[in-house]
């Protein structure tokens, strides 16, 4: 594969990571994709719940490749009397993973305010217990970068209960090909799918199968994949590969998941994915994710009878400050490109 498609995927990942899109507030990421697909000349629509559905290829055996563009985030739960914000999490993560991260509060009238997730008593020189306490929504709060000392000050600014909070992604590309950022879950895969569409378009690949790319917007809360076009017979979630403990996936590989918390993936789809990866001599791993659920499981639970699979680039430190590598992006892109032509 021409490296320019890997570069394009990586650049798209980086651009997507920088767009705030906590679940429920994904409008800007949807807009970005709509602009990209318009430029590529692809047929697409936006569903009522904000999924971007792109159509490629012919008529046979309709297949969905789905990646999610929503991310973890937060919401203002209440404004404390001292002008700090109590938060509720959007998506699931331990609070220790957001402490000391910067954030943006997005008001419903379109304004943005900066702040930081802080422990309520964050100075080591004052609080001798700081290192020992478990972090919860009771002791991690948002400190606004505004001169506010009481609830009324914050209300006057226009910050309200129910405003979305996005976490600073701190996106960085290193010289050695690593991408470090929050929200590589699942923007790493979304970038891969965008580049796949560009490859197919520019190289005029004649696909026999009908391919839908679906960019979902409610995965982190469990129902991203719950609506798909009626003619679909198969769906592959393209989502980050888990890295850790006894798993073989790393940041350079495309990971093929055989089973996760939702049970085994379809025998034929998974076997075919493994065979394509093997034949193409890709750097891949087959793994069991002990604590993981995917969009396509939401599709099955919504009542669709389809075959299902899960693959994705290896992403370390998931739901924290994550990392992947351009080789993982490339292996995922190449596996998908071959698979859809088999
Ligand atoms: Zn994900």
Give descriptors for this structure:
Aminopeptidase; alpha+beta; Elongation Factor Tu (Ef-tu), domain 3; single chain; 2 domains; 7 helices; six-stranded antiparallel sheet; binds zinc ion; 342 residues
Would you kindly provide a written description of the structure presented here, covering whatever features stand out?
The chain has about 350 residues and is α+β, with helices and mostly antiparallel strands. It folds into two domains: about 5-70 and about 185-340, Zn peptidases (Aminopeptidase, 3-Layer(aba) Sandwich); about 75-165, Peptidase M42, domain 2 (Elongation Factor Tu (Ef-tu), domain 3), CATH 2.40.30. Helices cover about 25% and strands about 30% of the residues. It is built from seven helices and 19 strands. Strands 1, 2, 3, 12, 13, 14, 15, 16, 17 and 18 form a ten-stranded mixed β-sheet that branches. A six-stranded antiparallel β-sheet has the order 5-4-9-6-7-8. The protein has a three-stranded antiparallel β-sheet with strand order 10-11-19. It is globular, with a radius of gyration of 21 Å. It binds zinc ion. Zinc ion (ZN) binds near residues 68, 219 and 239.
Euclidean distance between termini CA atoms: 17 Å
Which residue ranges are poorly predicted, with pLDDT under 50 across at least 5 consecutive positions? none
Q: What's the helical proportion of residues? A: 25-40%
| Assigned CATH class of the largest domain | Alpha Beta
Strand content: 25-35%
Supply the number of helical segments.
7
CATH topology of the largest domain: Aminopeptidase
- Mean pLDDT over all positions: 97
């Amino acid at each position: 594969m021409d490296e320019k498609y890997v570069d394009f995927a990586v650049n798209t990942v980086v651009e997507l990571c920088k767009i705030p899109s906590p679940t429920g507030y994904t409008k800007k990421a949807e807009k970005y994709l709509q602009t990209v697909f318009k430029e590529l000349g692809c047929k697409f629509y936006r569903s009522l719940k904000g999924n971007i559905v792109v159509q490629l290829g012919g008529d046979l055996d309709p297949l969905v490749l789905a990646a999610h563009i929503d991310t973890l985030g937060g919401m203002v739960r209440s404004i404390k009397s001292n002008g700090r914000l109590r938060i509720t999490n959007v998506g699931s993560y331990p609070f220790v993973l957001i402490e000391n991260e910067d954030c943006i509060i997005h008001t419903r009238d379109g304004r943005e305010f900066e702040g930081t997730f802080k422990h309520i008593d964050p100075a080591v020189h004052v609080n001798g217990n700081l290192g020992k306490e478990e972090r919860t929504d009771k002791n991690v709060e948002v400190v606004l970068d505004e001169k506010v000392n009481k609830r009324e000050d914050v209300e006057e600014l226009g910050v309200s209960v129910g405003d979305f909070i996005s976490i600073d992604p701190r996106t960085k590309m290193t010289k050695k090909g690593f991408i470090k950022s929050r929200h590589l879950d699942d923007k790493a895969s979304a970038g891969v799918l965008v580049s796949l569409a560009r490859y197919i378009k520019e190289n005029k690949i004649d696909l026999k199968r009908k391919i839908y790319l679906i960019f979902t917007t409610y995965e982190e809360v469990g129902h991203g994949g719950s609506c798909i076009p009626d003619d679909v017979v198969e769906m592959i979630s393209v989502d980050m590969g888990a890295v850790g403990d006894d798993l073989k996936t790393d940041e350079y590989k495309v990971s093929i998941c055989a089973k996760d918390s939702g049970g085994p993936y379809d025998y034929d789809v998974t076997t075919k994915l493994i065979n394509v990866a093997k034949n193409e001599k890709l750097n891949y791993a087959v793994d069991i994710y002990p604590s993981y659920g995917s969009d396509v499981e939401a599709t099955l639970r919504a009542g669709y009878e389809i075959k299902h699979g899960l693959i994705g680039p290896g992403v370390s430190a998931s739901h924290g400050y994550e990392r992947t590598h351009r080789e993982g992006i490339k292996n995922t892109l190449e596996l998908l490109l071959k698979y859809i032509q088999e």
